[in-house]
Design brief:
single chain, mainly beta, seven-stranded antiparallel sheet, about 50% strand, globular, disordered N terminus
Length: about 210
């Protein structure tokens, strides 16, 4: 499933990269190509009025989807490295009995981390690296929690094609005193997933690996 493609455009202002019908939702700065300059990751949001609806609590919410634009900085201008206009659901999605997960961006050793947090229930995150002119998925980490207690952790390295599962066996754990059994698996993958080609992060199935 394809998203939007990359471009070689360069501009000085962030607003130059925002497509019509979208606004800047959030922006993050960090070095993504190890050139000691602060690159920029912009989360954008659609503004289509038809997606402003009444939820099950009789509250008007904006269900427009969000996307991402990644800009690499070179001297005093930005270079468009990747874009995907609609890959994230709205922050106002109905989470059922749960709250919708919180989305934010992290940077770590030149890697881009798309991080979802589900509060006391854990988190999951996707790790991308800029290589071969694209941001490619190189890792995935998740934690399934019950309050402060970690029940299960998963870590996938798509470069080494290895997956680690850590499961807590201490049923009386209170947090910090878990006892984990670690199991390693080999995974099969033909090519690294490009960020620009992900149609919907909610539809990515990590259980296939």
């Amino acid at each position: 499933m394809l998203g939007t493609s990359n471009s070689q455009a360069q501009h000085n202002e962030l607003s130059d990269f925002i497509p019509d019908g979208y606004v800047i939702f959030e922006k993050y700065f960090g070095d993504l190509n190890k050139d000691e300059q602060d690159d920029c990751v912009v989360i954008i949001k659609n503004t289509d009025k038809k997606n402003r609806v009444i939820n099950r609590f009789d509250k008007k919410v904006d269900r427009n989807r969000r996307g991402v634009i990644i800009l690499l900085k070179k001297e005093n201008s930005y270079h468009l490295a990747s874009k995907n206009h609609n890959c994230f659901s709205s922050e106002n999605e109905d989470g059922g009995v749960y709250f919708a997960p919180e989305l934010w961006i992290d940077f770590n050793r030149g890697n881009l981390i798309i991080h979802y947090s589900h509060g006391r229930y854990g988190f999951w995150k996707y790790i991308f690296r800029f290589q071969d002119s694209a941001f490619r998925l190189i890792g995935y980490d998740s934690s399934s929690n019950h309050g402060p207690v970690i029940n299960r952790e998963t870590s996938i390295n798509f470069l080494t094609k290895k997956k680690l599962i850590r499961e807590n066996t201490n049923e009386n754990a209170e947090g910090g005193d878990e006892t984990f059994i670690e199991t390693w698996y080999n995974i099969e993958i033909d090519s690294l997933i490009k960020l620009s080609e992900i149609k919907d992060f909610d539809e990515i199935d990590m259980y296939i690996y």
